[in-house]
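Below: protein 1.
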Amino acid sequence: MRGGRGGAGARPFEHETPFGTADLDLSVSMTISLEESVYGGEKRVRLPTGKELNVRIPKEVTTGQQIRLKGQG
């Protein structure tokens, strides 16, 4: 999957609305190598909020696949 993308979900942040507080999901796109897509691995990503997370890439991830992070939204 050289040049492919695997999305990484991110922890929702709170946004004030007229009806109270709402959780918003964030997403980040990343490019991984063929080896990472076949064998898995780990990448560090920076969220739009500035927070950085280490993301575990599962084995046999495919182009365009989304990865939700447990406890991160």
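Below: protein 2.
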Amino acid sequence: MKVLHKIDDAKHIVIVTNNKTFANANALYSYVLSKHKKVSLVCMEELDVHFSFLPWFDKKRETAPASAELTIDVQKALNDTLAIFNFLKNSDTKINTKMATSLYAGLLLEYDAFQSNKCDGTVLAVASELIQLNAEYKECNNFLFKRDSLALFRLKALLYKTMLLSADATVLKMYMNDEDLTATGATQQDVEYIMKEALNIVHVENVLLYKRDEKNKILKSIKEI
């Protein structure tokens, strides 16, 4: 978190993010604005429409301005919502609604809607505090977990059709090829969402995604934590 202490000495800050860290990046964007600094939000991949409720969704740009004095890469060092929350608290920052909503969304994503085994009393206590700080928690839940696209359902149908169980039903194998994403309009985030969902099947502890060809290369693996 040392990089955050450099914000006071910079006039123009660039925040680099991606889909996985976009909620935390929104919180930091609000914080930099509260310091009356110029700030740019850079994301080189297309943002998932699920994040459209976040306050700075429309501020995203694909290239970093040359005039920036400080770059904060949230992807590499700051994908830890609790750490960002603690930094804001310890710096006596007034956590406004935009910050609280972004941080609450970050917790939802990081701890799988508070269903992850990593979720403990500290996480829930922070979530409760963010709600007290006017985080728009209902909107977070609706956009992040109740707005699945048709493309996701199309891909889910393909992957579930190919699934096989092995190792006493503890391992679930799915198969896809390069054309499946194009044909369904789904994204890599949709793939990961489906694989995590498959962990809810009784006995399944590990989900493996294979490339459907003669080599059957493993593309991704997700295990129960």
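The chain has a mean pLDDT of 92.
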